[in-house]
Amino acid sequence: MIRLIFCNSNKQIKIFFYVSVLLLFFTSISFAEQSLYWNQVNHADGYKIYCRPESANTYFTNQLNISNNTRCSIMSLVSAFNLKPDRKYFFAVSAYSSNPNIIDSTQSNEIAYSYDSANSNDNTNGDILETVVIDNLNNSSLIIKGNWKISGGENPYGENSFYTTEPDDSFTFKSPFSGNIRISLCWTYFYNRCLNVPVKIYDGRTLIDTFYINQREKKDCSQWNILGDYTFGNTPRIVITAENHPELLEGEFKYISICADAAKFERLY
Fold first, then answer.
1. Domains, the chain
2. Cα-flanking dihedrals φ and ψ of residue 77, to 5°?
């Protein structure tokens, strides 16, 4: 059995599923810090997150797949399910195995979340001391693994954006400063972009957060998307990883693409 909770990822305050407590909890912390948590299931290779609006009794047809993690940020859920502000949604999780002889677990209890438009923008406040944008061509601030090619995606930041369809490729943006940093990411649209791109935030060598971004959602493409505010003691790094698999597109199975365009690091007071 899986039990869902929401948690403040910075302060490690765990609130169990009681609606009256959740409503108080979400009004008191930053939108960027809110996350969905669940317990680990032995021998599971990953987890599927299901979402439905309050007005429906069935889940959306798409699920968000999470590999080797027992949390997902609210920002990833908003992107993956195209959540609309000022509405309530319900989430559930099941565990799955790569072994074809093992069926998925039963779904967890549901947990409610009200996506507040005012709350979702509270991480845009704050005084900015310094801003640095790392483009996909800033070689000194990049670590590129694999075969990334120039993308045909429209309206990139700078000259162009890159893409890959190789499952082991990665693209890393490094910040020139540490401290209190706001992190934003830009990518371009293409019809076969991945629906849940793993984006990992590192403080030096320590993984501190993971997002799953829907790069096929047009409204989020070719613009700055804030991932959150963090305090770094070492070099901040954003790592875009390609955990690729074939997907049915236009009537045939094709490898989906992952985009790397630009990252923005803003040093805050």
1. 4-123 (2.60.40.10), 126-268 (2.60.120.260)
2. -65, -40
Q: Inform me whether the pLDDT recorded for 233 exceeds 80.
A: yes
Phi then psi for residue 80, to 5 deg, are: -65, -40
- Cβ-count burial of 111 within 10 angstroms (0-12 exposed, 13-18 middle, 19+ buried)? buried
For residues 196-221, average pLDDT: 89
Structure tokens at 68: 């080797």
**Residue 199 pLDDT:** 93
Summarised one tens digit per residue, pLDDT across range 121-136 is: 444 444 678 899 999 9
Q: Which residues pair with 226 in a beta bridge?
A: 184
Express each pLDDT in 19-46 by its tens digit.
222 222 233 345 556 778 888 888 787 7
268-to-35, 180, 185, 228, 229 alpha-carbon distances in Å: 23, 5, 17, 12, 9
- Strand partners for 133: 264
Q: Which element (helix H / strand E) includes 80? A: helix 74-81
Please name the residue that has the structure tokens 């910040």.
Answer: 175
Mean pLDDT, the chain, whole residue set: 79
Closest CA to 82 of 257, 209, 214, 184: 214
- Decide: helix, strand or coil at residue 139: helix
Virtual CA dihedral for 148, 152, 157, 158, nearest 10 degrees? 80
Sole residue written with tokens 């080797």: 68
